[in-house]
Amino acid sequence: MNVLLLPRLTSVGVTHILDIDKAHLTPARAKAFLKEHSSMLFFAASGGNKAEQLSTDIGIKIREIAEKFGFPSNSAQSDRAKFDQEVAIFLAEQSALNSGESLRNDVWAYLTTVETCDIVAWRFAKRDPERFSGGARNAFQRLWIRSTTLDRGVESKDRWELIRSLSEDAFVAIFERPSIGGNPELARAIAECWVVTADLIGRGAMEQVMRRAIKLLRLRNEIVDLANLPQDELEQIVLRYFREASIYAKSEN
User: Fold this and answer.
1) Are 51 and 12 in contact (CB under 8 A)?
2) Neighbours of 120 (CB within 10 A)
3) Distant-in-sequence contacts of 45-54, Cβ < 8 A, 24+ apart
4) Would you write out the chain's pLDDT as a tens digit for each of its 253 residues?
5) Which element (helix H / strand E) includes 35?
6) How far is CA 122 from CA 24, 71, 73, 114, in A?
7) Domain range enclosing 122
8) Whole-angstrom distance, CA of residue 178 vs CA of residue 127
9) Of 145, 164, 183, at which residue does a domain stop?
10) Are residues 1 and 101 in the same domain?
11) Beta strand pairing status for 49-50 and 41-42?
């Protein structure tokens, strides 16, 4: 297998590029900076072929999606949510990202800080550095993690329903907790049960229900390793806790 090696940006590079002028971030200015400070841009030492153009092409497609949802002007929260959904699906469908390169924080740091820095600044108006640095809160790394984890597979009649259905609060509750987000089976079970419960009680009530269900599941996970349960048994347990959380939320209100 010929692995395409994507460009990587050091954490120092992220900091310096953001310090150039946070109010006017552009790919052109970021690339001009890297021409003068080439040590901050690097590739894996061996094991494949350098593919800087691939990052550029991915950035171009993300830009097209952003423009569809209002970039570079101000956009509604609903538009930004739809932007996230489309980018998540696009990234998951890129076969070139099905390698160890996608697990590297510095690969995503390059994509967000260099190729799409102005888009990230549009999507996250506060321009927090963690949206540019690699990691679970990186603007696009977080979307790739979501979509590859919650992908139902090409044989599914509605492959991307979980990506299109879950609220941002639900995604955060799942993927910003390593004990849950780091367990794909558990993460998918929670997402599936979120959709089932939301259909029953309405999306508006789900934030409170999700918080309580997650709390119950984390307590259960300390007693029984949920990751080792058969998938059908795991889903039954998760759904039971969502039902309990729904009853509790109803009694509180």
Assistant:
1) no
2) 22
3) 47/3, 47/5, 48/2, 48/3, 48/4, 48/5, 49/2, 49/3, 49/4, 49/5, 50/5, 50/7, 51/4, 51/5, 51/6, 51/96, 52/6, 52/7, 54/4, 54/6, 54/96
4) 578 999 999 999 999 999 987 778 999 999 999 999 999 999 998 778 999 999 999 999 999 999 999 999 987 999 999 999 999 999 999 998 998 999 999 999 999 999 999 999 999 999 999 999 999 999 999 999 999 999 999 999 999 999 999 999 999 999 998 889 989 999 999 999 999 999 999 999 999 999 999 999 999 988 888 888 998 999 999 999 999 999 988 887 6
5) helix 27-36
6) 11, 7, 8, 14
7) 1-164
8) 24
9) 164
10) yes
11) unpaired
Q: Are residues 139 and 235 in the same domain?
A: no
Identify whether residues 160 and 180 lie together within a single domain. no
**Do 8 and 121 belong together in one domain?**
yes
User: Are 120 and 216 within one domain?
Assistant: no
Number of domains in the chain: 2
Against a cut of 0.70, is the pTM above it? yes
| CA–CA dist 22, 1 (Å, integer) | 40
Two tokens, residue 249 = 């939320």
The tokens of 16 are what?
Answer: 């310096």
Map residue 202 onto helix, strand or coil. Answer: coil
